[in-house]
Amino acid sequence: MSYWGYYPPYVPVAEKKARAAKKLKELSKKNPNLKPVILQGTKIARTWWGKAWNLNLERYADYDNRIGRGRSYVRHGAVLDLQIDSGVARALVQGSQSKPYSVVVSIKTLKKERWQTILSQCQGMLESLQELISGSFPKMLGEIFIHKDDGMFPHPKEITFNCSCPDWAGMCKHVAATLYGIGARLDESPELFFRMRNVEMGDLIQQAISGHKEKLLARAARKSSRVLEEVDLSSTFGIELQGSGRPIPGAFSDPSILASDAVSSMPRRTEKAVKSAKTKPPKRSSSLKSSKASLKVADKKTVRVKTKTGKSGAAKKKAAKRRKVL
Prior knowledge:
Helices cover 53% and strands 8% of the residues. The protein has helices at 13-30, 48-58, 61-64, 71-75, 112-121, 129-134, 139-145, 173-188, 191-196, 201-221, 230-237, 258-265, 268-279, 286-325; strands spanning 79-85, 88-93, 101-107, 159-163. The protein is an alpha+beta fold.
């Protein structure tokens, strides 16, 4: 673009970068609060918010033919400072002159009617603040945000700008660099977009997440058919559920029915074992068996001795009788 018919000489990109870096270092000594736009790589925007901002500018014919002139300025670090506030963005852009140019971009704040419409449309579409900041929300929600007529992003008629350079064009390279710089800054801090449009990000989060919670609570209120009621469990197993506070009437209250109730509540195998224990005598220990066996052996020996003794006496009597006869 000519300045009153004067065309500045071509300056290589490497020289532009060196000049911008030198000027930034010089200004930082006087003002340490400078916030330069420094890209990570060659892409101006990497996240959803930065890309959506640039896309919104490029889809309007009023901007598409002129805004591209600011891309190279952003890439070689010409935006030395960018401050974003409610309805305004101020920047210092290094141009062909030694002194950087001052740029002011005014953006109308979002109308309350449009903001309320967006809030109602976003109900139940978000689950967390992190999801909103990272841009990892459903595609339908993104379409609501960037809608050309009723979205959150500004129209060209809602943006006005001013630059201190001598370029009389409708949009100079420094303004275009500032607009692209806003897109790059939204990569780092998406909440600045809400500040610039003068709306509360918390309102959107509350509306969107509250709708999601209501859906979850509605689902939780519907009990599954696979879940047994507490009363059914108590009557089935004959036990008192923990925390129910409702004891089963008559359970283990009468000592006379304690044994029968206990046996009836046992499994089948255990019940058989208890019944067999009632009919069969208890098994004796091995020591008792051995002692009784030894007693039986002793009794048999005694009987044998007595028997032998008895037989010898009778024989003697018979012999005596025989002697008398003779």
